[in-house]
């Protein structure tokens, strides 16, 4: 299996090379040249998470030896996860929540970031790279901590995380700025997630900077979903969710299901699309947005228009106006037309929008939820079912309710439940009528645990007394300078 760039189809590299590079030099994203089909899917229903992970990942990571890939999988999906199923499926009312937040940092990002360091180390070995790898990461909250946790103290790797100073939850920020590990560097930027992600992409595309790093024995890679090594492991849990339904007798062989994904950078829903293309029986992919409803507009009109204010919401992981992975979807559905992608991405960069005539996204449905609807959904879910959901999952749940009303479709549905509610204490607590005014976040969380009878996850309970180790802050223009400082490499003028 080879990988090419969405912006230049003459590129042809192996999976291990794509994982190391993170993003293509032409600014495009690496995609598999064909999406492999999986045969006899229904026969896989007795497999555990690791076994299934191997079946799926070995289709994509074809230059990894079987035993080496198995090793990566074994080390990734172990007791770091608090549930033996890794991704348990919970039936509440008429939907099934695929709980993806039982990893070490309590967000779905752990599902892929638990394995990425092992894949990267193996990729480095395969390609005989003798440089140190610097992982650049932009985050609106969850990716940053998950990447820090997984790469901390990994030999031969350094990790730099940029987060929007005012665009993450209190707990997400605390998780990041208390991160231990000599190889970790965390920086708050005065800007939003798009600024952080654009800054990181510009740094990737800066040849002079790459040369400077190279001379100093460093190369860059990414822990965001722009890295294909982040995306492929996310396909696994959609198969696992489907096969759990089948195993429990909730669906029949080959019965189609709907999947709802709270969506920001479009990586998680793209993984579901890959699962569908591999043969998983999926009826609709429901793309749920918060008030930053750029994807809803795109799915419904074919116009992607970022000329709008980014709104800070209670679901910060989705506070994004440039959804990077949409580029991959467009590449696939345009018949792999790299020139078309270049034109559209140029339009977006130059004029702030692009339009696609006769856009055919017939498997997708897009809608969004307001902050009020998010609170209402959290409340409703808790009062009716005693089930607590985080604001991102509430966005998805609410959008699914809208979908049912609009279409009367009663297909069985999996909702990707992407984060622990305790990461977003104030919003969740106030939604279930806990008075949060003038209260410290940790006290709010304690009240939340008391009222719901749910134990505070250890990773959050421990945070309160952790020392702040990172107090760096910069303007978006200075991101490169901060990296130079961290790596102690001489600066360049550009
Ligand atoms: N949702 C994000 C933004 C980055 O997304 P990614 O999937 O590309 O890493 C976050 O939590 O940081």
UniProtKB/TrEMBL annotation:
| Database matches in SUPFAM superfamilies | Tryptophan synthase beta subunit-like PLP-dependent enzymes
Q: Which residues carry this modification: N6-(pyridoxal phosphate)lysine?
A: 109
Q: Which GO terms describe its biological process?
A: threonine biosynthetic process
GO cellular component assignments = cytoplasm
**Pathway given in the UniProt record:** Amino-acid biosynthesis; L-threonine biosynthesis; L-threonine from L-aspartate: step 5/5
Q: What are the top taxonomic ranks of the organism? A: Bacteria, Bacillati, Bacillota, Tissierellia, Tissierellales
Annotated protein name in UniProt? Threonine synthase
Tryptophan synthase beta chain-like PALP domain residues: 91-310
Tell me one GO molecular function of this protein.
pyridoxal phosphate binding
Q: Which UniProt keywords apply?
A: Amino-acid biosynthesis, Lyase, Pyridoxal phosphate, Threonine biosynthesis
Q: What is its EC number?
A: 4.2.3.1
Q: Where is the Threonine synthase N-terminal domain?
A: 2-77
Instruction: Supply the InterPro entries for this chain.
Output: Ser/Thr_deHydtase_PyrdxlP-BS, Thr_synth_N, Thr_synth_N_sf, Thr_synthase-like, TrpB-like_PALP, TrpB-like_PALP_sf
Q: Tell me, in a sentence or two, what this protein's role is.
A: Catalyzes the gamma-elimination of phosphate from L-phosphohomoserine and the beta-addition of water to produce L-threonine.
Query: What PANTHER family does the annotation carry?
Result: THREONINE SYNTHASE-LIKE 1
Q: Which reaction does this chain catalyze? A: O-phospho-L-homoserine + H2O = L-threonine + phosphate
In terms of domain of life, where is this protein from?
A: Bacteria
Membership in a protein family: Belongs to the threonine synthase family.
Swiss-Prot/TrEMBL cofactor(s): pyridoxal 5'-phosphate
- Class of enzymatic activity (EC top level): lyase
């Amino acid at each position: 299996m080879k990988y090419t760039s969405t912006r230049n189809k003459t590129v042809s590299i192996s999976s291990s090379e794509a994982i190391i590079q993170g993003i293509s030099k032409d600014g495009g994203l690496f995609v598999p040249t064909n999406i492999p089909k999986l045969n006899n899917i229904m026969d896989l229903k007795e497999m555990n998470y690791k076994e299934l992970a191997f079946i799926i990942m070995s289709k994509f990571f074809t230059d990894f030896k079987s035993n080496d890939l198995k090793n990566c999988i074994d080390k990734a999906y172990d007791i770091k996860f608090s549930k033996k199923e890794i991704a348990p499926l919970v039936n509440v009312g008429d939907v099934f929540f695929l709980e993806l937040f039982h990893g070490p940092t309590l967000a779905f990002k752990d599902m892929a970031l638990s394995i990425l360091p092992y894949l990267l180390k193996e990729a480095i070995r395969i390609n005989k790279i003798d440089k140190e790898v610097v992982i650049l990461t932009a985050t609106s909250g969850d990716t940053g901590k998950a990447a820090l946790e997984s790469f901390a103290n990994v030999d031969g790797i350094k990790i730099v995380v940029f987060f929007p100073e005012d665009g993450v939850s209190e707990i997400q920020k605390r998780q990041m700025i208390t991160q231990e590990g000599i190889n970790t560097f965390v920086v708050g930027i005065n800007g939003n997630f798009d600024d952080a992600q654009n800054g990181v992409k510009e740094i990737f595309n800066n040849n002079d900077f790459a040369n400077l790093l190279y001379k100093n024995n460093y190369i860059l890679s990414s822990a965001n979903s722009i890295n294909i090594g982040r995306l492929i492991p996310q396909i696994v849990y959609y198969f696992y969710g489907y096969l759990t339904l089948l195993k429990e007798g909730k669906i029949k062989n080959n019965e189609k299901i709907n999947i709802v994904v709270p969506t920001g950078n479009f990586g998680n829903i793209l993984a579901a699309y890959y699962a569908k293309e591999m043969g998983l029986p999926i009826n609709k992919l429901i793309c749920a947005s918060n008030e930053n409803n750029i994807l809803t507009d795109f799915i419904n009109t074919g116009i992607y228009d970022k000329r709008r204010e980014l709104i800070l919401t209670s679901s910060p992981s989705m506070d994004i106006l440039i959804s990077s992975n949409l580029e991959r979807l467009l590449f696939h559905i345009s018949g792999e037309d790299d020139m078309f992608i270049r034109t559209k991405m140029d339009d977006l960069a130059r004029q702030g929008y692009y339009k696609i005539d006769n856009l055919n996204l017939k498997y997708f449905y897009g809608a969004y939820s307001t902050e009020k609807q998010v609170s209402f959904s959290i409340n409703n879910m808790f009062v009716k079912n005693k089930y607590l959901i985080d604001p991102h999952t509430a966005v998805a749940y609410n959008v699914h309710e809208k979908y049912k009303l609009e279409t009367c479709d009663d297909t069985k549905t999996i909702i990707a439940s992407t984060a622990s509610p305790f990461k977003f204490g104030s919003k969740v607590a106030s939604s279930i009528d806990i008075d949060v005014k003038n209260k410290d976040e940790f006290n709010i969380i304690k009240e939340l645990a008391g009222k719901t009878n749910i134990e505070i996850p250890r990773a959050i309970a421990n945070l309160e007394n952790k020392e702040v180790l990172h107090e760096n802050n910069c303007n978006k223009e200075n991101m490169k300078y901060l990296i130079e400082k961290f790596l102690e490499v001489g600066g360049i003028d550009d």
